[in-house]
Amino acid sequence: MKKALETEVAVIGGGVTGTGILRDLALRGIKAVLVEQGDLGHGTSTRNHGLLHSGCRYAVRDPEAAVESYQENLILKRTIPGSIEQTGGLFVKVPGDDDAYVRRWLDSCGKLGIPVGEIPLEQAFREEPYLTKEAQAVYQVPDGTIDDFTLLIDVAADAVAHGAALLTYHEVTGIMTEQNHVSGIHVRDTRNGEEQDIYAPIVINAAGPWGMNIAKMAGVPLRIINNKGMLVVFSHRFNKRVINRLRMPGDGDIFVPAHDVTIFGTTGKNTDDPNDFSLNREEMEQMLTTGADLIPEIHQMRLIRAYSGSRPLYQKTAGKGSSGRDVTRGMALLDHGERDGLDGLITITGGKLTTFRLMAERTVDLVCKKLGSDAQCTTREAALPSRKSTDSFSGANLAPAARHKLMNWAGVRTPEFETSLKDREAANVVCECEQVTWAEIDAAIPGDGHLDLGDIRRRTRLGMGPCQGTFCNFRTAALAVEHGKAGTREADCALMRGVKERRKGMGVVATGETAKQLQLMQTIYQVSLGFGNEEEKQHV
After folding, report:
1. How far is CA 373 from CA 13, 29, 414, in A?
2. What is the mean pLDDT of residues 367-384?
3. Does this model's pTM top 0.85?
């Protein structure tokens, strides 16, 4: 018999918007279930810059989105400090940039209340030594950076701690309706094929680039532009602050410091397929050429990988803003009862990583209106538990670098790790680049035994360093088998999926040291371990 459960709200989509909605619902005491077709954040939410916008980027073209970004910037710095680095940011004018645009930008930022201050060029060059000496003006802004991996995990964990339910690797196969009202969703476990019905009087479509597919299941129209952006990762962090080019937003104009690396991008190409994560070397080279106007030495710096993801941009009518750059970055909250005559279905789309909390607040306000609830939003003040701890792991058998990493990563799991790390084997570092211990990996493997190196990576940073998992991926697979966490076949499949994904990101940037690293990876897996292309096709 097909399984079934009942709830008040079903949320579709396990990105930052969906998890933010789930947490807001839970904090207001509303029973909710979130359904995600893959792992948390496998789509758009971890395929971006990780930029905490000040709003300055949109001050001229999209003032409403700019104000929302700035206000949420301040709120998130208070409420999720463990996932934010308050780097500050710079907007830099270089030769060829429009003087008239700079004047409009300064005027718009002033009218919107976003603090901007010009700094002397000598100070900018001293603080950011890689910045082009051709810069003509530099302004400081309150940008920051977000660790979207920890943000997602922490938001989802807090929602569950307050009573919400979470179903990853569950694909929505249909929307249930009764007399012009949604009554729930049909879902299928993508790992074992088991089907389930989730009965709910309200269904929230927070599926991002996949949102049109959900709307189609419900028989309602929805126009979303999936604008795919490509980004690259440098092997070291060469800028202290976010560096933006002072011009109308375009390709290749933002450098974001993140942990020990710098992320640069992005491009904007429309795609019809939300699963299109393809990479193009020519596109990357064009982006780097543009970026050299800000950081002239980037062609001599080592790139370790590239990746891409799609921005879901809402469009009211077809044929306008088709380039993607011309479409608002603001959010769109759609009540399909009022708009399309299907009550109980809500779509939330568009927006930015920076505005995810506000998107959740407005969505749940609408839910409360429909449920007749007067529960108020508390996420403006309700902070997530901090991840940083200065005195943790003092007694653990850890190398200093691994201890430092865990002090800034473990968060609410600190007591659990401190206990497990007393075991010498658990304290062994499996990934030297990112100082990931077996204890962290073990804790990231789900209790149902499904092994996925990408899922572990999103929770521990496994394989995110310069070697891109060349050594730690097969160590992790071997240890999972040794400790009874996976069978040999399952470990082989997980290893091949992980290697294929890492090789894809490395291949498009493979020159110099990264080309050598990729060749070493291929030699290890194809020669030493016996995994060739045929084996990869069979296991993936």
Report:
1. 24, 10, 37
2. 96
3. yes
